[in-house]
Amino acid sequence: MTELDDARRDLIAEDVATAFERQFGGAPAVVVRAPGRVNLIGDHTDYNDGFALPLAIDRSTTIAARPRDDRTVHVLSEGFGAAVLDLDSDDRPTGWEGYLAGTLWAVDAQRGWDAVIASDIPIGAGLSSSAALELAVARVVAAVEGRPWHPIDAAHAGQRVENEWLGANTGLMDQLTIALAEADTALLIDCRSLQIQLAPIPAEAAVVVLDTATRREVADSGYNDRRAACERAAHALGVTALRDASLADLEVVELDAEDARRARHVISENARTIEAASALGAGDLERVGQLMAESHVSMRDDFELSSSALMRSSTRRWPRRGASALGSRAAGSPGAGSRSWSGACCRRSSRRPLARTRRRPAWRATSSRCSRPPACRSRLASRRERGVPRGVACAGCRRRRSSMGRASARRRPSGRAIRRR
Known about the structure:
Layout: H1 3-24, E1 30-41, E2 51-67, E3 72-77, E4 81-86, H2 96-106, E5 113-119, H3 129-144, H4 151-165, H5 173-180, E6 185-190, E7 196-200, E8 205-211, H6 223-237, H7 247-252, H8 257-281, H9 285-301, H10 308-314, E9 324-330, E10 341-347, H11 383-386, H12 395-402, H13 406-409
Parallel strand pairs: 3-5
Antiparallel strand pairs: 1-2, 2-5, 2-6, 3-4, 6-7, 8-10, 9-10
């Protein structure tokens, strides 16, 4: 977590508090925040009593709230509008209000409150926007009713919302990660014992999340069907959960072909997750990247969770500004026509060289500063040091002019042609 991330988080909290004052008059009594999460490795292992290695991201859901003297909850969402929920009502609203009402039911809320909700977590993107909302609401209820905060209990309440209120038979990983997350740290979660082992992210590593511009909903993504396949495989193998099975067991017991593929992914993913946590702790980022790539192949081939967009982003290698991608994989679980994201583990670089993102030579400047300071502030080495011919624009200027069209990128402001080195 950088100082910029902290400042951004504080600014969002101030904006939500200001919106609360405009809507309800007076300052809120409490402001809570719940981050989204991304999974480095360990997908679809949580409901098989396995292991997962998620971490919190810098996007979050923020709620400013103040208790009321009745049993109604008045909420204004900056993204979805206003809602009023009666704690004594048996109605089950749908949409975003369903997550709010379901959480109030799961934690047995007894007192109403006013609130403004804002979130910058992309919706339906596999980054746990719904789990973040559930945990934030649970935290508000604990604050306004004076209850002690028990993060694991709140995580279980969020899982009940998904399972019993919304009908999505999900595991506990999302809620548990959000409830227990620490900055710059991944969590190795034993989903059977709920034991947590911290795995600090090395300072030279960065986790990058890429948007594939496709959307999904958990209940519509084939999630329940895949979970049922895992349960059938565990029953056929004679184990409580696939965590207790081995790849050798799959050779002994004859399973349905689809169930066998699902089981193979879960069993191998558990082994990859444990090894990835060890490699992360040892600072072996190359091995972490290899395991992430293997996980993506398993998700694609055995669990059949991929898309053309995910394939393009997860198999791409994109060194940029001295950083190098070590491994990438699907970060969400797409369904047909759904949206998901891919994640990559990258090595940072203290150097910030000019653009070298393509095999073709980069554009260089002829002097220590670009000839168009307002357009590009890049400081570059002198032409003598770089050996750059005259008339060549810097990488920054080229990037800005190329956005206006290829032809304009090939011309200097004076009209002289740009030459390559």
